[in-house]
User: Fold this.
Amino acid sequence: MAKIKTGIIQFEVSLGNVSKNVEEITSRLEKMGEAGASLVVLPEMWATGFDYGNLSELSENMDGVLEEISNIAARRNLIVVGSLPEKTGEDKIYNTAYVIHKKDGIIGKYRKIHLFSLHKEDKYFKAGNEKLICDTDIGKIGIMICYDIRFPELARALALGGAQILVVCAQWPAERIGHWLVLLRARALENQVFCIGANTCGKDKKLQYGGTSVGYSPTGDVFMVAGDEPMSLVADIDLREIDKFRELIPCFKDRVPEAYDV
Assistant:
């Protein structure tokens, strides 16, 4: 499959209010299905927000949330990616992005590797240690979460592993939204892949979030972008652009990895 209809859902996450957030997302996913989207990206921690005081209790309700999203994905023929708190049997909590694939349900999960210590994320979450590339019927999808985009090594590893679309779930603050745009564009351009970032908007107890969810092509061009209000975006991409640009500027063929020592 070359041409794909992709979508982003940007909304204001209600801190700790799982039922409200799920109601918002399920309604919008239904509309994404009606619009013919194949891939839909949700923000980081979209069902709970960073409600640290209640995180352990909230994380126990995610199985039902995942089942509800899986049912919609199957009915609407969607691939849905978004992050939620994942509680393991060891009583550890991860910030985990789930890839829910149409009738196959959860086909992969990525536990956020780079925890944002500035906001004490490392005090409440366990860090993951493995990258994720999901091979789907619309192409290979590499997953990142928010702070991960400041680490180009991860995006490069995903691209070297064959990822054609980099998906980023985020809760990125308004005061650094300029960084968000530069970093996402750089990850797309330097790896010659599509990069789709879904951010939240509005505010919680401490932060104003910047919205500006965006999609970049392999050439660094914007193919969809949101403002700072809740909205859903849909746009077509053509994976053949990747090979065309790599033939024009053969960065991957010209790499000299033995010289980098990183």
Helices lie at 18-34, 55-59, 62-76, 121-124, 152-160, 177-191, 240-248. The mean pLDDT is 96.
